[in-house]
């Protein structure tokens, strides 16, 4: 009985900065989808919370996070980094997860959701290939058919991840229209879903998409802040840090890192976007600085667009932040002033990545390097506790680091 009461509390609208029952965060969110997609999205919307908060789902999800992903990920006190910036820095080590980043938390959750919905076929779209790899991984784990749509240009640029997906048994289908990048792959995936509504689940990889995706992805990723709370309690005697910091592409590692702190006003929320070559150079992905309200990927949010509403091609040295929008939660955090938004250039992110490597022996993903560039923009107090989401490891980026720093 107690359990049931607890679980129904989970299912309710969490209030404050969380999604309401229609998937709105303030004015952002919702589900703006073609009529023909309505049955698929509606099936998910009606059932996702009931499925997610059954005992059997929670048990299987947490068992896999533990035994397969390797959770809990450590909360590591970064001594030398703390000394350098004269503050207390903790790193949430999502880089130590199986497949090397936070994305697996979400794909594990969604593959279990797909199974409970009786689906046998998984589709996904990917830009850099990281979400594609995380999806192909869980499909192999569950013995499900996996089709990953990817722009033809991205297939050429991201050959190692394409090889990984194939090795894991996935089919990689090229998107041949438009600019042959992420948004074209997204269109192909949506077309596939419309044509295969009964047996197929579409795994979206960030805190974006039509409701319920942003909220569902956030809840799966919220294990990050759930762990931070008890880990910080053990280390500092208190659950709430003074700041949580994360980089933002679509916003899933950030959403998971912020989730349990959003309604705790004493916790400062910090977001770092990719400024590319500079916010105003025309080669950037700094959505909060440059974006306007529009509709992308089925939700209303901030996105980079021309005066007549065409989506602008974003640019960042990190493939995972090279996205023209942000999830609706982040648009609301920006607009309401709940979060501080910064943007870090390619150079700042690369420098911060090198610094973390040499101060702590941890080579981060370049996406993650953006979060560490916060120290170039903000000064913290000596007794501030600052938790940074170390969203992924840098193995995949080694060639970019080598070229940039002329290491070879
Ligand atoms: C994909 C990725 C990101 C960006 O995605 P979010 O949804 O914004 O978290 C950040 N870091 C790493 C390591 C990634 O792989």
Structural commentary:
The modification N6-(pyridoxal phosphate)lysine is found at residue 103. Its cofactor is pyridoxal 5'-phosphate. It catalyses: (1S,2R)-1-C-(indol-3-yl)glycerol 3-phosphate + L-serine = D-glyceraldehyde 3-phosphate + L-tryptophan + H2O. The protein is an alpha/beta fold and 408 residues long. The chain has two domains: 24-66 and 103-217, Rossmann fold (3-Layer(aba) Sandwich), CATH 3.40.50; 72-100 and 222-405, Rossmann fold, CATH 3.40.50. It contains 17 helices and 14 strands. The strands form four sheets. The chain has a six-stranded mixed β-sheet, with helices on both faces. β11 (292-296) and β12 form a beta hairpin. α5 (103-116) crosses α6 (130-142), α5 packs across α10 (213-221) and α10 (213-221) crosses α12 (252-258). It is globular, with a radius of gyration of 20 Å. Mean pLDDT is 94; it is low at 1-9. The site of pyridoxal-5'-phosphate has 19 residues, from α12 and α16. Residues 101, 103, 130, 206, 247-254, 320-321, 365, 367-368, 391-392 line the site of pyridoxal-5'-phosphate.
Characterize this entry briefly.
With 408 residues, this protein is α/β, with parallel strands linked by helices. It is built from 17 helices and 14 strands.
Question: Which descriptors would you attach to this protein?
Answer:
lyase; tryptophan synthase activity; Rossmann fold; four-stranded parallel beta sheet; binds pyridoxal-5'-phosphate; disordered N terminus; 17 helices; alpha/beta; 408 residues; six-stranded mixed beta sheet; single chain
Mean pLDDT: 94
Poorly predicted runs: 1-9
| Whole-angstrom Rg | 20 Å
CATH-assigned fold name of the largest domain: Rossmann fold
* Ligand inventory: pyridoxal-5'-phosphate
**Separate helix tally:** 17
